[in-house]
Amino acid sequence: MTMRVGAAAILVAVAIGASCPTLRAQAPQAEPPSDTRSVWDGVYTDDQAQRGEPLYRANCASCHGDTLKGAGETPPLSGGPFLANWNGLTLGDLFERIRRTMPQDKPGRLSRQSKADILAYVLKANKFPTGKTELEHQTEFLNEIRFAATKPDKK
After folding, report:
1. Single pTM value for the model
2. CATH topology of domain 37-146
């Protein structure tokens, strides 16, 4: 009997605490980072894109074309439709699509590093600037890089 009374008292205290904001400890609100990185910040190196080009030609060009323009049902990897399709997402989203589904005939064939190199080549083909650091091959880091179709204005 006393266990029931104790359990009921705890439930009442929790319910009052949850409904009364002055009794709850206020957790600090995390602000979104004001200075997020984007593909315009040089997130891959020229050397990495050069490594990615032959990998692209050997594993992707048969479907997406030598010029990355796609063909038939195969979507392009460069130009307006490609940029519009990925605009506002992250490089992590694009990398995961590549990692999980490409090459279409055997998605697990290439390493994460090879796929990151191919993605660097795709970024170069879309005229995004190079930088001093290679593109990561871990999704959690790529999720921190926005895919922005147009160069943002610097304030």
Report:
1. 0.77
2. Cytochrome Bc1 Complex; Chain D, domain 2 (1.10.760)
The CA–CA distances, whole Å, from 124 to 35, 52, 108, 155 equal 23, 10, 24, 25
Cis peptide, bond prior to residue 32, ω within 30 of zero: no
Maximum separation of any 2 CA atoms in the chain, in Å: 78
What whole-number distance in Å separates Cα of residue 95 and Cα of residue 91? 6
How far apart (Å, rounded) are the C-alpha atoms in residues 30 and 43?
25
Q: Is the dihedral of CA 51, 95, 113, 40 positive or negative?
A: positive
CA distance 148 to 38: 6
Query: Which residue spans within 31-95 are E strands per DSSP?
Result: 37-38
pLDDT at 12 over 50: no
